[in-house]
Amino acid sequence: MNDHPGVSVSVEYKYFCSDPGQESVKKAIREHNLTGIVVAACSPRMHEATFRKACAEAGLNPYLCEIANIREQCSWVHTDQDMATEKAIEITRSLIEKVKLNNELQPIEVPVTKRALVIGGGIAGIQAALDIADAGQEVVLVEREPSLGGHMAQLSETFPTLDCSQCIMTPRMVEAAQHPKIRLLTYSEVEQVEGFIGNFKVRIRQKSRFVDMKACTGCGDCIQRCPLKKISDEFDCNLGKRPAIYTPFAQAVPNIPVIDREHCTFFKNGKCKVCQKFCQTNAINFEMQDEFLDLEIGAIVVATGFQIQNTAMYGEYGYGKYADVITGLQFERLASASGPTAGKILRPSDGQEPRNIVFIQCAGSRDPSKGVKYCSKICCMYTAKHAMLYAHKVDGGKAHVFYMDIRAAGKGYDEFTRRAIEEDEASYLRGRVSKVWKENGKLMVRGVDTLLGKPVEIAADMVVLATAITPQPDAREFAKVVGIGCDEYGFYNEAHLKLRPVETATAGIFLAGACQSPKDIPDSVSQASACASKVIGLFSHNQLEREPVIAVNNESTCSGCWGCTLACPYNAIEKKDILSRSGEIIRRVAFINPGLCQGCGTCVTFCRSNSIDLAGFTEKQIFAEVMGL
Amino acid sequence: MSEPFEPKIVAFVCTYCTYAGADLAGTSRLKYPPNIRMVRLPCTGRISPMFILKALQKGADGVLVSGCHPGDCHFTQGNYHARRRWTVFRALLNFTGIPLERIRFSWISAAEGVKFAELISSLTEDIRKLGPFDQYKAMIHETEAPVSL
User: Fold this and answer.
1) Considering the domain boundaries, does residue B104 fall inside one?
2) Closest residue of B to A549, CA-based?
3) Residue A605: which of B25, B55, B85 has the nearest Cβ?
4) Into how many domains does chain B fold?
5) Measured on CA atoms in the order B13, B17, B21, B24, is the torsion positive or negative?
6) CATH number of A307-470
7) A578: Cβ–Cβ under 8 A, 6 or more apart, which residues?
């Protein structure tokens, strides 16, 4: 490399990213009065910032530093040593050619809007909102259902302590609703996100409840009077019934009903309005329309949660065919004191207590043939909990659990599963279930005990499937709305799995809870608090420094064709008048607003007169890089 | 027997998806042939057809253009512009007689390290089969003047 034209010094060192390594870079810059450096090492996504900082400390403009990626994209992926070495040299050379043409750039300062948006009002969203608000920052908490709570509000008891879920959840919900720094928007959805870190513009649709939130006192008369009573209750996983005007559950926050437009008799037939007649505060308004809110937001926490897999995919387990084959979440509702059976474990088909119950773990998880290769993480634990709750609630009942492996890593988790087996005498059978069918009023479960190497058949009264946790049905579309990425399943991508697990690739947008991957409550809460600390960190600055990689227009050659304005996704290109001395308009040219430009460079390629260039990735730099290859 | 032909392929990729996908292939220690040279750009929208021509002129036997999947662009629309531009540019390439098989357009996300490694392997094989791209070189030789772009 020393022989390459323009190179004044070339040094080899094992870890340039280490302190002594960086010191040697700084020393070289000072000693040789360098005007640019190329670091041939790992990916710029790892250490570009490190070396730019070292440059700045040595008095060299940080944008005169380029990284040649000879690790992730060369040494780690090739087996032919000679060819890989040749490639590494070429990569480095081409970046030397580029760096020769690099310009000194100055970071751009942009203001920070100190208001956070938290999307999703489950435990993760609530935790993030409370933590940010407690730090004195404004929060807008958006939940698409009529009440806060998410899945956690549906649970009966929680592992590994067996404390009642609603008892620990509802105080948090109330706290979030009453917090002076939190603006709560339930029954609302985020429709559009524009802008960038510190400066997002978000459009929120407030769906019409048909109930005036200010006038309603939450007395519940309307709910009592609604003549429709037989709508499947989503909150109870279709095990219970609800009227057309309803709150999802008794402790709903806010405690204000909504009218289910799809089922309401008035919206169907144009007649009824019984609820309106009985409302003492005239809160019901059938004319209400959806409203839109446009908000300026500085940071976004996405905590949109999960859904459980459609268990009907498993025809062999008879879900949907036999009423007494239910999902784990349905079992939660049965076991919950606020559920349709007031906490009694009763068969949905006939209301009898099941004497023999079978739990099937991994009913969907770790099954590549059904598209879920991953472990859903919480099922081993909640199945152990279900077996315990069953033993506590049904005297003399027998619980059988079919499992593949027991994955109980967590504080107090393994002890908990042992307790289910040893104290509550659940019979754990290692193996898959192949079929469930009905015979003489019993659900016959055929599986295999792989430890004994024998087939097993159990005549059960009820079967509970530990279904997989999957992304929300609209997770992919929503990712596009917000501008973040998904993995192959639709879970949201973090910036780095290990080192940046709460950030997304889009600066200023963070992830909390099961929208990123299946998670239990402690993990969701921890991640939510981590998000909050990221947001609070961001809000501790009044100004943010942004990369100066932006498009710049040469006004003397610009012809004013406005092709660039068609290309720009950010509306960053304005029309600027060039005036003569006497104040007449001579020409109109494009002006690129540096605050709005994000530096994608699409306009550069669009420009017919070659007037626009992208700082840091100029035409000349790229041609030089290509020529260097 | 002569040594197998080792093509040179230049890839123009966006830093958010394909470059990150290539890094993932690296951290996962996947293997692919060393014939690829990556040029990192902020977005596929930045890729000018001139870059592709320049690479071919400089001696590349194949060119890859790769960015985020439609709808996933970090800059919301850059890849759509790149796609439209590519559609038009294809026709021009065809007209000039540059075989379209030498230029590949693909989408690779930051999560698709495996897809990246597979694409590079298959692309390298395909270009190897096509043999060296010497149309430009022949042209330069005939005119005895460098083609300036």
Assistant:
1) yes
2) B42
3) B85
4) 1
5) positive
6) 3.50.50.60
7) A555, A585, A586, A587, A588, A589
SS (H, E, C) B105-140: EEECCCCCHHHHHHHHHHHHHHHHHHCCCCHHHHHH
- Give pLDDT tens digits for A65-91: 999 999 999 999 999 999 999 999 999
Task: Give B82 to chain A, closest Cα distance, Å.
Answer: 8
A115-305+534-539 and A307-470, same CATH topology: yes
Token duo for residue A50? 């490190």
Note the CATH architecture for domain A115-305+534-539: 3-Layer(bba) Sandwich (3.50)
Q: How far apart are the first and last CA of chain B?
A: 38
Any domain includes B4: no
CA distance B39 to chain A (A): 8
Whether B82 maps to a domain, the answer reads yes
The answer to whether A241 and A250 are in contact (CB under 8 A) is: no
Contacts of B30 in chain A (CB under 8 A): 77
- Domain assignment of residue B149, yes or no: no
Chain B: residue whose CA lies nearest to A75:
B26
Terminal Cα distance for chain A, rounded: 14
- Where helices occur in chain B by DSSP H, the ranges are 18-27, 49-58, 78-96, 113-130, 135-143
- How far apart CA A136 and CA A179 sit, in angstroms, is 11
H or E element in which residue A437 lies: strand A433-439
Minimum-distance CB partner of A602 among B37, B45, B72: B45
Range of the domain at B85: 9-143
Angle at A136 between CA A133 and CA A140, to 5 degrees: 40
Looking at domain A551-628, which CATH architecture does it have?
2-Layer Sandwich (3.30)
Residue range A240-274, pLDDT digits in tens: 999 999 999 999 999 999 999 999 999 999 999 99
What residues of B are in contact with residue A622 (Cβ under 8 Å)?
A: 39, 41, 51
- For chain A, the domains span 19-107, 115-305+534-539, 307-470, 551-628
d(CA A623, CA B54): 7
Measured between alpha carbons, how far is A218 from B123 in angstroms, rounded to an integer? Answer: 65
Residue type, A198: G
Residue B27 belongs to domain with CATH number: 3.40.50
Structure tokens at A495: 């910036």
Q: Kindly indicate the confidence band of residue A596, based on its pLDDT and cuts at 50, 70 and 90.
A: confident
